[in-house]
Amino acid sequence: MNLDLYIGERIRELRNQYGLTQEELADRTELTKGFISQLERGISSASVATLSDIVTCLGTNLSEFFREEQAPQIVYKEEDYSTKIDKSGNSIKWLLPAAQRLSLEPIEVTLQPGQALDLDKPHEGEEFGYVLEGTAELVYGDRKYRVKKGESFSYKADRNHYLQCAGS
User: Fold this and answer.
1) Which of 4, 46, 87, 148 has the smallest C-beta neighbourhood within 10 Å, fewest atoms?
2) Which residues are registered as beta bridge partners of 92?
């Protein structure tokens, strides 16, 4: 796509997003409606200073204006996962890469018989788990909970906590 056409489409898109007419944008930028129309159709090009004034009036800056938006990833495949195996053979598989930017961080944990994950100190957020097979023991603060296959658990992560394998 030609750069003038790209710039014109982006200006039109932002102008419409803010509910402005070409005339209103022209008034705010001290340009003519005809010039705004030509820009939007890719017929004319603007100087960097003029383009900067236009995008500022449209609530953004040149850097944001030219940033290519990437569609967010929706489906994740096994090759997207990352896995850590500790010295006891327990594994933690992160099911969403870059989950730090989200408000959840789904993981799959596999515990070896008689083994436990490291102590997790209090932190922001909540934790949830579902036991796929076997039996786990959830240690939350000074309490212990037995969680069997098909059962789930949820808690605020405001206390020391960890999971350990309670069976074979």
Assistant:
1) 87
2) 84, 109
pLDDT band at 99 (very low <50, low <70, confident <90, very high): low
Assess contact for 115 and 166: CB atoms under 8 A.
Answer: no
Helix (H, G, I), strand (E, B) or coil at 152: strand
What phi and psi values does residue 48 have, to the nearest 5 degrees?
Answer: -60, -40
pTM: 0.56
What tokens were used for 73? 């990833």
Q: Do 131 and 167 form a contact (C-beta atoms < 8 A)?
A: no
**Structure tokens belonging to residue 146:** 């037995």
Class of domain 78-165: mainly beta
* DSSP category for residue 24: H
Instruction: Say which CATH architecture domain 3-66 belongs to.
Output: Orthogonal Bundle (1.10)
